Amino acid sequence: MLRAIELWRGRIELVAPFRTSFGVDTARDLLYVRAVGDGHSGWGECVAGVEPNYSSEYLENCIGVVSKFLVPCLHPDSTAESFIASVSSIRGNFMSKACVEAALLDLRLREQNVSLAKYLGATKTRVASGVSVGIQNSLDDLVGVVGEYLEQGYLRIKLKIEPGNDIELVRVIRREFGDTLLLQVDANAAYTVDDAPHLKKLDAFNLLLIEQPLPEDDLFGHVRLARAIQTPVCLDESITSLDTARSAIELQACSIINIKPGRVGGYLEAKKIHDLCFDRGIPVWCGGMLETGIGRAANLALAALPGFTLPGDTSASARYFARDVTEPFVLEDGHIAVPDKIGIGVEPLPDMLEKFEKFAEFRTT
Ligand code: SMG
Ligand code: MG
Question: Which residue owns the Cα nearest ligand 1 atom 9?
Answer without folding.
Answer: 188
